[in-house]
From TrEMBL:
Species this chain originates from: Cohnella nanjingensis
Name assigned to this protein: Aminoglycoside phosphotransferase family protein
One Pfam family cited in the UniProt record for this chain: APH
SUPFAM superfamilies linked: Protein kinase-like (PK-like)
Keywords: ATP-binding, Kinase, Nucleotide-binding, Transferase
InterPro entries recorded: Aminoglycoside_PTrfase (IPR002575), Kinase-like_dom_sf (IPR011009), Tyr_kinase_AS (IPR008266)
Domain (Aminoglycoside phosphotransferase): residue spans on this chain: 3-225
């Protein structure tokens, strides 16, 4: 639950964790994840571009509530802009720069104690691995070995702080196209490829649904370029993107805006092919998928 609080001309945001998530299927998660969110925000805020991470100003651990600074009034959701047809390359570029700063700075500045503090993947498993990958294994047993390999890649190759929910709905964009990143509940010391794949899956779906494939491809290319994506170091990006795409159609956290059965089948075919060939060249596959 999230509330905006206004008092004496000042604005803050209150957030409280819920045990049951607001999705169609039963999906429960430990409310203690809100402590991880604050931990991540406090760690990241000093090392990130000014204003890009809200500042925690008050915490109530008993009631699983905290208060943070509020984004500028003019800031709007990147998801809202995209769904209204505004595919702005500068926003994608700034998202890439922000994610790069998060990954590189955390890798460089986190000591052993901080790495261990973020090393517990409980919330990531509860909110990502289980409802996404393992839920798919139950539906697509033929993809079990490939999905297990992707899970292993996420759990074993860990070298920076990963956001875990790097999607347009969690990014506010101000009048200068600056990105403000929200929602750090599943942040963990993990594999950075997950954040890349998470955003790519969302941009792919919006490109297909809105018939703006060329615009979506431009955003993805700008995002990856700004991030300084390297196919060699993030070799399984296309496989992870495929798993997250399929999860958005057949996992526990589906996207409501993909309604046409024909499009769902296209997404399934594309996703399953990428899962089966996880190390294929990412940009080439994205370009092929976004052909009109």
């Amino acid at each position: 639950m999230v509330w905006k609080v206004t008092a004496g001309g000042e604005k803050w945001v209150l957030k409280q964790a819920l045990g049951k998530l607001d999705v169609a299927e039963d999906w429960f998660a430990d409310v203690g994840r809100i402590e991880r969110e604050q931990q991540a925000m406090r760690f990241l805020e000093p090392m990130m571009p000014d204003g890009s991470v809200p500042r925690v100003v008050h915490s109530d651990a008993i009631n699983h509530v905290f208060m943070m600074t509020c984004a500028p009034e003019e800031a709007t959701s990147w998801k809202k802009r995209l769904m209204e047809g505004e595919f702005q390359p500068d926003v994608a570029r700034n998202a890439g720069l922000l994610l790069r700063a998060m990954h590189e700075n955390s890798r460089r500045l986190a000591g052993q104690a901080q790495q261990e503090a973020f090393g517990d993947m409980t919330y990531f498993r509860e909110l990502r691995i289980d409802p996404f990958h393992r839920h798919l294994i139950g539906k697509y047993q033929e993809l079990g070995p490939e999905l297990e390999a992707l899970i292993g890649d996420l759990e074993e190759n860990r070298n920076c702080l990963v956001h875990g929910d790097f999607s347009p709905k969690n990014m506010l964009v101000d009048d200068n196209q600056r990105v403000i990143l929200l929602d750090y509940e599943v942040a963990h010391w993990g594999n950075p490829v997950f954040d890349l794949a998470f955003l790519l899956a969302h941009l792919l779906l919006k490109g297909w649904v809105l018939g703006k494939q060329a615009d979506a491809l431009r955003l993805m290319e700008r995002f990856l370029e700004a991030y300084d994506f390297n196919q060699e170091t993030d070799a399984r990006l296309i496989g992870h993107t495929g798993a997250l795409l399929l999860s958005r159609i057949d996992g526990k956290s589906t996207v409501g805006y993909v309604k046409e059965q024909k499009l769902k089948e296209l997404v399934r075919r594309t996703a399953m092919d990428w899962i089966r060939h996880p190390a294929d060249e990412a940009v080439a596959n994205l370009r092929e998928a976004m052909k009109g």
